[in-house]
Specification:
heterodimer; A: mainly alpha; B: mainly beta; Methanol Dehydrogenase, Chain A; five-stranded mixed beta sheet; four-stranded antiparallel beta sheet; 40 strands; about 30% strand; PQQ_b-propeller_rpt (chain B); Quinoprotein_ADH-like_sf (chain B); quinone binding (chain B); Pyrroloquinoline quinone-dependent dehydrogenase (chain B); signal (chain B)
C-alpha cells in the first residue's frame, strides 16, 4: 500500500508539467472516454457530497468524488497514476461499504456494483496509459 | 394540436374571472360549488323527512356466524373476520401443482381516455352454489363456483365521477331475511354499499331488486350529508349486519377541506332499509337524522375500513379514521380528538359508543385504522377471553377485551417527539405501544439505510434524508421543510388486515415498510384546490397534494423515493410477512414478501426472481390444510406459503396486480382459491378485470 502511494506521488510529480495527450488510436479514445466518465460521475458526488457533509452526513462521497475526479484528470493527461488513484478509491470503498451495511446484499448493491464495473474499465486502460507514458518519456528524452 | 388543453383553458378562465371579480368580493371564503348529492343523481331516490332513532326488525342468525365447511360467506370468511378456512385439500405437499381452473372478467376497467383510478380490492364470497362478487364499479354478479359462468348480473350504473380515491368494492354481504319465507324472492339477499353512497339489496337467487328494502331496493346514504361533490364521500367496504342492523361507514376523501362531509356512522334495518340511528361525533347524544336544512356534523373522523360485527355482545367495532384534513389537528373538537384513529365499539341498538380505544393520539400522520379488526378467543391463563385483534398502520397490534375495550396485552404510553413549528397545533407528549405483541415493523431509519442503484442516486437519497426533519416514529410535521414519516401511511398493516388460525393459535400478517416524505406548505402560495372546488384538477386524492382547505396549510405528500429513478429511497425490504404464535406471542417465521420481477428503476421490470420484499396491499388467508395464500405484492403474483415455516410453496403471475385478499372455497368436492387481480392505481400495478381461480388438477 505504502509503495503504491509513493508511486502515485512520484507519477504525479513527473506528470506535473505534462499537458493532455492527444488520442490517436481507438484504445486511446476509449481511455479518454473512461477518464471523462470518471469526471462526469465524480462531479455529482462532490457537489451533493459537500452538502451532505455540511448537513452532518457521511464524508465518504466528497472524498470518493474528489479522488475519482482527480483520477479522471490524471488519466486525461495520459498518466497511469489516474487509474491507480481510482482503483485505490474503489479498494477503500469495500471496507467502508461493509462497515456501513455488513453483508447485506441489497445494501451492498448501490455501494459496490457500479464502482466495480467501472473499476474493470479502468483496469483495461492501464496498458494504454502505460504505453502513452512510455511515448511521453521517450519524447522527453529526445527533447 | 387538435384538442384544447383543459388545464390551460381553466387557468385562462380562472384568470378572467379573477380580473372581473377583483375589488368586488373577497377571494372565495367557502366553497360555492353546489351539486345534488351523487347517490340521488344516480338512482333518483326520493328524499324523505327527518327520522328519529328506530327499532330494528327481529333478525335470524346469519350464515356468517357459523359458515358451512365449504363456504366463504363473508368478506373475512366469517363474522369474526378470521380469514381462516377449514378446507384441507390443498396442502404444502400438493400446493405446487395448483393450476388455473378459470378466469372471470368483470368488465370493469378504465375506458379509453379515462384516468386509471381503479383498485378493485374485491374478495368474492361463496355460499352454496354461488360465488358472489361486485365489480370495481359496483355491478353485482353471481357466478357458478366451478366454471365462473355468470348466473346473473345486476348493473347499478355508478358513474365515473363518483369514483373517490379509487374505484374499489371490497365485497358484498350475504343476508338471510327474517320476514320473507324460504323459497320466496329476497329470502336470501345480497347487500352492497356503493361508491355513490347507495345501499342496495337484491335477491341472491335471481339478482332482482328487493322491493321491500328502501325505495325499490335502494336507499340513499347522502340523506343528511349536506353539500358534497361526487366522489367526495363513498362506500368501498362491505357493511356488517349485526342483530338485524346494517352498520354503514364511508370514506371521505383525504386532505380536501376541514369542513368536508361528515364521517357519521349509521344503522339501517336490514329488512326494510329504515333508518335506525346515527353516531355523529360532534352531536353526542343525538342519534336522529339531522333536521330539514341541517346536516351531520362536518369534518368529523370517517371510517373507511371494513368493520366487524359482534352479534353476541350487540356491538360493532368501528376502525376509525381521522377528522377531515389529516395533517393538521388544530381545528378538531375534543370529541373528535377522543375518537380519531381509535377503535370504537358501538351498541347496534342505539348507536352509542360502549367503549373506545385510541391507537394514535392527535393523529397528523394519516395513521387511521385501515385494518378490519379480527375477533378471536384469546388463549388466556384462565381460559379463552373474547378478544379483538386490532392491527394498525404503525405495526402495533393491539389485543383488546371485546367486552370493555381494555387491553389484554400490555399497552405502554411512551414519550414521542413534540417539537414542531406548527405552533397552533401542539402534539401529544405520548403515544401507545402494544408491547406484548411483536411489532410489524423495522427499526427507525438512518442515513446509511438510504438506497439506490449506484453511489450517485444513493447519495441523492442520503441528501434528501438529511434535508428532512426526522426524529424517528411520530416526527411532528414541519412547515416549509420536509419531514419523514416512518412507518408510512400505507402501513404496517393496511386494509388487508390479518388472518387467524384458531386451531393452531397462529396469526399471519403481511405488512409494509414504506416511508413517506411530506411537507406542510402555506396553501395560498401553491394554488391547491379541494375536490369540491370548480378549479380542482383531478389526479389528487388520498395521496399526493392536498389542499387542506379551510386551514392555513396545504400538504405535499409522496412516497420517500428518488423522483428521477422512481426507486424508493430506503433500502429493501418494503414488504414483509410474519406469523405469530398467539400462545407465546413469539414470531414463528418472518421474511420479505414479494419479488423484484415487476419492479425496477424508471418503472422498468427487472424480471429478477429475487425476493426483495415489495409494498403490498391485500390480506392473507390461512387454511386448515396448512397453506397461507397472499397476493398483495407489486410483483403481481399470488403466493402460497407453508403455514408451519413460511417456505414459499408456489406462486403464479396474475394478469393484473393482486391487490385484494384471496379467498378459498370447496364446490362438489374440489377446493378452489380465488383472487381478484384488479391492480391498484397508486401501487402502479397493472389494472385488469380478471378474477383468477385456481384448483388442483383433476387426476390428483
Amino acid at each position: 500500500m505504502r509503495h503504491t502511494m509513493l508511486g502515485v506521488v512520484f507519477l504525479l510529480e513527473r506528470d506535473r508539467m505534462a499537458g493532455l495527450y492527444r488520442p490517436r488510436r481507438a484504445s486511446e479514445w476509449a481511455t479518454c472516454a473512461v477518464a471523462v466518465l470518471l469526471i462526469v460521475l465524480g462531479l455529482p458526488l462532490v457537489i451533493m457530497g459537500t452538502e451532505l457533509a455540511l448537513l452532518g452526513g457521511s464524508l465518504y462521497y466528497i472524498l470518493a468524488g474528489t479522488a475519482i475526479i482527480a483520477g479522471g484528470i490524471l488519466m486525461l493527461r495520459g498518466s497511469v497514476a489516474g487509474a491507480l488513484l481510482y482503483l485505490l478509491a474503489w479498494l477503500l470503498t469495500w471496507p467502508w461499504a461493509l462497515w456501513e451495511v455488513g453483508f447485506d446484499g441489497w445494501g451492498l448493491l448501490p455501494r459496490l456494483l457500479g464502482p466495480t464495473l467501472i473499476a474493470v474499465l479502468v483496469v483495461l486502460t492501464i496498458p494504454v496509459l502505460r504505453h502513452l507514458q512510455k511515448i511521453a518519456m521517450a519524447e522527453k528524452d529526445i527533447a | 394540436m387538435a384538442t384544447v388543453n383543459p388545464a390551460a383553458a381553466t387557468a385562462l378562465c380562472g384568470f378572467m374571472l379573477l380580473s372581473a371579480a377583483a375589488g368586488m368580493v373577497p377571494a372565495r371564503a367557502q366553497s360555492t360549488y353546489k351539486v345534488a348529492p351523487p347517490g340521488v343523481n344516480a338512482a333518483n331516490i326520493p328524499g324523505e323527512p327527518r327520522v328519529g332513532p328506530g327499532e330494528v326488525t327481529a333478525a335470524v342468525e346469519q350464515i356468517g356466524s357459523h359458515p358451512a365447511h365449504d363456504d366463504w360467506p363473508a368478506y373475512g370468511r366469517d363474522t369474526a373476520a378470521t380469514r381462516f378456512s377449514p378446507l384441507e385439500q390443498i396442502t404444502p405437499q400438493n400446493a405446487g401443482q395448483l393450476t388455473r381452473a378459470f378466469v372471470y372478467h368483470t368488465g370493469s376497467k378504465p375506458a379509453p381516455g379515462q384516468a386509471n383510478k381503479w383498485a378493485a380490492e374485491t374478495t368474492p364470497i361463496k355460499v352454496g352454489d354461488g360465488l358472489y362478487m361486485c365489480t370495481a364499479m359496483n355491478d353485482i354478479v353471481k357466478l357458478e363456483p366451478a366454471t365462473g359462468k355468470e348466473v346473473w348480473r345486476h348493473n347499478v350504473g355508478v358513474k365515473y365521477a363518483s369514483i373517490p380515491y379509487a374505484a374499489a368494492c371490497k365485497g358484498v354481504v350475504y343476508y338471510t331475511s327474517s320476514t320473507v319465507p324460504e323459497g320466496q324472492l329476497c329470502h336470501n339477499r345480497i347487500l352492497e354499499g356503493m361508491l355513490d353512497m347507495r345501499l342496495i339489496e337484491i335477491d341472491a337467487d335471481t339478482g332482482k331488486s328487493c322491493e321491500g328494502f328502501g325505495d325499490h331496493g335502494q336507499i340513499s346514504l347522502m340523506k343528511g350529508m349536506g353539500e358534497a361533490a361526487p366522489g367526495f364521500v363513498s362506500m368501498t367496504a362491505p357493511p356488517p349486519i349485526v342483530n338485524g342492523a346494517i352498520v354503514v361507514n364511508h370514506q371521505v376523501l383525504n386532505g380536501q377541506r376541514r369542513w368536508a362531509p361528515s364521517g357519521v356512522i349509521r344503522g339501517y334495518d336490514a329488512e326494510t332499509g329504515k333508518f335506525l340511528w346515527a353516531w355523529d361525533v360532534n352531536r353526542p347524544g343525538d342519534h336522529s337524522e339531522p333536521a330539514e336544512g341541517q346536516h351531520y356534523s362536518r369534518g368529523t373522523p370517517n371510517s373507511w375500513a371494513p368493520m366487524t360485527g359482534d352479534d353476541a355482545l350487540g356491538l360493532v367495532y368501528v376502525p376509525m379514521g381521522n377528522s377531515a384534513v389529516n395533517y393538521y389537528s388544530g381545528m378538531r373538537s375534543p370529541e373528535e380528538n377522543r375518537v380519531s384513529s381509535a377503535i370504537v365499539a358501538l351498541d347496534v341498538k342505539t348507536g352509542s359508543p360502549r367503549w373506545m380505544f385510541q391507537t394514535v393520539h392527535k393523529d397528523v400522520w394519516d395513521y387511521d385504522v385501515g385494518s378490519q379488526p379480527t375477533m378471536i378467543d384469546f388463549p388466556g391463563q384462565d381460559g379463552p377471553v373474547p378478544a379483538l385483534v386490532v392491527p394498525t398502520k404503525r405495526g402495533q397490534t393491539f389485543v383488546l377485551d371485546r367486552r370493555d375495550g381494555k387491553p389484554i396485552l400490555p399497552v405502554e404510553e411512551r414519550p414521542v417527539p413534540v417539537e414542531t413549528d406548527v405552533k397552533d397545533d401542539p402534539r401529544s407528549p405520548t403515544q401507545p405501544w402494544s408491547v406484548g405483541m411483536p411489532r410489524l415493523g423495522l427499526p427507525d431509519l438512518k442515513e446509511s439505510d438510504m438506497w439506490g442503484m449506484s453511489p450517485i442516486d444513493q447519495l441523492f437519497c442520503r441528501l434528501q434524508f438529511r434535508r428532512a426533519k426526522y426524529e424517528g416514529e411520530f416526527t411532528a410535521p414541519s412547515v416549509d421543510r420536509p419531514w419523514i414519516e416512518f412507518p408510512g401511511y400505507n402501513g404496517g398493516s393496511d386494509w388487508g388486515s390479518v388472518a387467524y388460525d384458531a386451531r393452531r393459535g397462529v396469526l399471519v400478517a403481511n405488512w409494509n415498510v414504506t416511508p413517506v416524505y411530506q411537507i406542510l406548505t402555506r396553501r395560498k402560495a401553491d394554488g391547491l384546490m379541494p375536490v369540491d372546488d370548480p378549479s380542482f384538477k383531478a389526479g389528487g386524492g388520498a395521496e399526493g397534494k392536498g389542499a387542506l382547505a379551510d386551514t392555513p396549510y396545504g400538504i405535499m405528500a409522496s412516497p420517500f423515493w428518488n423522483r428521477y429513478t422512481r426507486l424508493l429511497c430506503s433500502k429493501p425490504p418494503y414488504g414483509m410477512i410474519t406469523a405469530i404464535d398467539m400462545h407465546t406471542r413469539k414470531v414463528l417465521w418472518q421474511h420479505p414478501l414479494g419479488s423484484a420481477r415487476a419492479n425496477g428503476p424508471w418503472r422498468i421490470p427487472t424480471y429478477l426472481p429475487l425476493t426483495i420484499g415489495t409494498p403490498n396491499n391485500g390480506g392473507p388467508v390461512i387454511t386448515a390444510g396448512g397453506v397461507v395464500f397472499v397476493g398483495a405484492t407489486t410483483d403481481n403474483m399470488l403466493h402460497a406459503f407453508d403455514a408451519a415455516n413460511g417456505k414459499e410453496l408456489w406462486n403464479d403471475v396474475l394478469p393484473g396486480g393482486g391487490q385484494a385478499t384471496p379467498m378459498t372455497y370447496e364446490y362438489k368436492g374440489k377446493q378452489y382459491v380465488a383472487i381478484m387481480a384488479g391492480g391498484h392505481h397508486f401501487m402502479r400495478t397493472p389494472v385488469s378485470d380478471a378474477l383468477v381461480v385456481y384448483a388442483l388438477p383433476d387426476n390428483k
